């Protein structure tokens, strides 16, 4: 029994769309036996890393596309998934190992003019809806990136940096999938595996334009995110250098104090000290304090830095 497979008639001539989502291994076996699908084809379709392609099989055609997926509770919220469209003369089977908003929009009839009278147009509609979702998710990713950047301006935390890294992963997934879909669109146009009429050709042109726009947007956002991460990495490195500089100054100052106390600690009588008089101890303590203060002032004195600041103020 196919628990996650729906058969829908959205055309007057009884053509079928068989929607198989979240398929299990037993359902894959049932699809193979019931519709005579090749097992290697089914393994390719449910492979999360499968790239887009189109090819002809015995009695049917196969188109594998990459669709965007939003998973709110995941570390990497935005990913992509393959969907296989198996096209028979009287039915089309879409197979996906997970669920996504594109398939929900199609099944809930939220796409205007969607029918099964033309299977090539149905595939192009899926790609068109995928581009719309890619663009929508990219805008959400950009807003999230801006929000994280504002938080990092206040205080640099590891959690925000990890979120930026996950966003970078999402953009990489999007870029790879969009490029694969672009190659698929070009192959649909060149190979003629899917027979397109004039309306389908025009729609295919529009989808290619949207796909290129999404690719350029994903590339731009990826470069921006990488630049933000590099900038904050430089800030962290600079802050670390400042801290190390201060620790070095403190350690050198303490070395002078340690040298003075070590010298009078080698069974040498303290100066100005007789019997139980504390004058020698106070002298050594004062000498350590004065030496440490002078050493600190000398190490922090940088005439060239002050001269540079004055010149910048004048400009």
Characteristics of this structure?
transmembrane; rod-shaped; six-stranded mixed sheet; Mg2 transporter protein CorA family protein; 315 residues; metal ion transmembrane transporter activity; 8 helices; Beta Polymerase, domain 2; alpha+beta
Your description of this structure?
The chain has helices at residues 25-35, 39-45, 101-107, 119-154, 158-191, 198-263, 279-300, 303-314; strands spanning 5-8, 16-21, 53-57, 60-70, 78-87, 91-96. The chain is α+β, with helices and mostly antiparallel strands and 315 residues long. The protein folds into 2 domains: 5-236, Beta Polymerase, domain 2; 264-314, no CATH class. Helix 5 packs antiparallel against helix 6. The chain is rod-shaped.
Q: Tell me the CATH topology of the largest domain.
A: Beta Polymerase, domain 2
CA distance, first residue to last residue: 79 Å
Helix-strand topology string: EEHHEEEEHHHHHH
Largest sheet composition:
6 strands, mixed
Number of helices: 8
Rg result: 34 Å
Biggest sheet strand order reads 1-2-6-5-4-3
Mean pLDDT over the residues: 83
CATH architecture of the largest domain: 2-Layer Sandwich
- In total, the number of domains comes to 2
Provide the low-confidence segments as ranges: none
Strand content: 5-15%
How many beta-strand elements?
6
The CATH homology group name of the largest domain: CorA soluble domain-like
Residues in helix, %: 55-70%
Subcellular location: Membrane
GO molecular function, one term: metal ion transmembrane transporter activity
Keywords: Membrane, Transmembrane, Transmembrane helix
Family: Belongs to the CorA metal ion transporter (MIT) (TC 1.A.35) family.
């Amino acid at each position: 029994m196919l628990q996650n497979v729906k058969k829908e008639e959205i055309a007057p001539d009884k053509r079928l769309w068989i929607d198989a989502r979240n398929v299990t291994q037993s359902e894959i076996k049932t699809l193979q036996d019931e519709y005579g699908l090749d097992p290697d084809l089914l393994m390719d379709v449910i492979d999360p890393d499968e790239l887009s392609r189109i090819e002809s099989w015995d009695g049917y055609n196969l188109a594998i596309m990459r669709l965007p997926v939003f998973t709110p509770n995941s570390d990497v919220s935005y990913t992509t998934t393959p969907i296989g469209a198996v096209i028979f003369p009287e039915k089309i089977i879409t197979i996906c190992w997970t669920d996504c908003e594109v398939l929900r929009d199609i099944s809930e009839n939220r796409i205007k003019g969607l029918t099964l009278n033309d299977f090539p147009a149905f595939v192009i509609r899926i790609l068109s809806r995928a581009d719309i979702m890619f663009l929508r998710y990219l805008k959400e990713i950009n807003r999230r990136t801006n929000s994280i950047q504002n938080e990092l301006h206040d205080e640099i935390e590891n959690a925000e940096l990890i979120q930026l890294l996950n966003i970078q992963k999402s953009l990489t997934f999007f870029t790879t999938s969009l490029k694969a879909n672009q190659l698929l669109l070009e192959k649909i146009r060149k190979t003629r595996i899917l027979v397109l009429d004039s309306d389908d050709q025009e729609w295919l042109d529009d989808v290619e334009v949207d796909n290129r726009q999404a690719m350029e947007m994903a590339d731009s956002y990826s470069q921006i995110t990488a630049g933000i991460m590099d900038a904050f990495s430089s800030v962290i490195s600079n802050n670390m250098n400042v801290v190390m500089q201060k620790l070095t100054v403190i350690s050198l100052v303490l070395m002078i104090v340690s040298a003075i106390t070590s010298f009078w600690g080698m069974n040498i009588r303290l100066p100005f000290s007789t019997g139980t008089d504390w004058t020698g101890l106070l002298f050594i303590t004062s000498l350590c304090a004065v030496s440490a203060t002078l050493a600190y002032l000398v190490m922090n004195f940088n005439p060239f830095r002050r001269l540079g600041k004055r010149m910048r103020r004048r400009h």
